[in-house]
Amino acid sequence: MRTLSSKDEIAWMLDGLGIMGTGGGGDPQAWGASLIKADLARRRTYQLVDPEELPDGALVVSGGYLGSVAEDRTLDRVVDEWETTFELEGAIREMEGLLGRHVDYLVPFEVGGGNTPVILSAGARLGIPVVDGDAVGRSAPETHMTSFIGHGISLCPMPLVDSNGTVVIVKKSESIFLPDEVGRFLVSTRRGLMANSHYPMSGADLKRSVIPNMITKSIELGRFMSTLAGDPEAKLARLAQFVKGFPLLWGAVADVKGENSGGFYHAKVRVEGRGKHQGETVELTIKNEAMLARLNGEPAVVFPDPIYLVDPKTNQGVLTPDIKKGRELLLVGIPSHARLREALRTEVGARAFSSERYGEKVPYRPVEELLKGKR
Fold it and tell me: How far apart are CA 29 and CA 46, in angstroms?
């Protein structure tokens, strides 16, 4: 176990999470940085533990937030209000009541600029260490899209708590999709945020299903990006090499068609190549995050393999709602972790990650197969 307290490490972590979130997972420079600043001002400490250090009999849960900030509540005001009512604490305490025991460790649902810091904050507030890992190795739009579910770990029970004291518990569901749908419905009927806790598991279950050391990797990526220099083509090549991925292209956004629907941001984006990629295109399918990339009309990266979206001028990740016509992007496809691919080979995992969940009919194939001989 180690304490995450260095200002440099935290800054690198936020930059890394902003890229690893694949366009979603929260804004690291707004949500993440504001929350961490408030925690450090109150002398809270972030305790990280390597997954392999967990006792087999430990109780681990995940969790996070659904929804968006209401228009009349500024970011700082939300962070301040969390000093009075931190909904995620309520959801975790509800989970403890359901299970009849204290939670020993928390694990992020995903890596992202907002959703990872809220779990770190919950751990600091409750005195619970946070596992250095997550369930996707990136951000994902729906709660069932995890390695956990494909390794036989139940999403339920799932308590949901809002700032008004509302508590709804999805105790059991025959459908893997229903718990997320319940949460989206509840958020759509009220203003503000709602927290949930889910995936109760043992330390032994965590060790066989988690995507390990993703917070450490976000720090390493952020440190690397702070040194990345050169023209966009050079940056693209170096970034792809560092993350052991595949350079799709450096280009500029030529067209964006997006809308908010059903609690998600859906969009189609066309990026036209520049430099040596002149004449090539990447088309992105977005459901909060970048879910599918077609290179010159053919599938190149299919969820859950990550697609990194990076601004070549700032070296920072780009959130999908911020993708506008004319914006330059570096696009990199990354192989997902072996444990996630194991989950995909199960019947429940295949349904959870199906491309039909984001409006496509593209079967999953590893990025290294799809891009063989092309990049």
Answer: 18
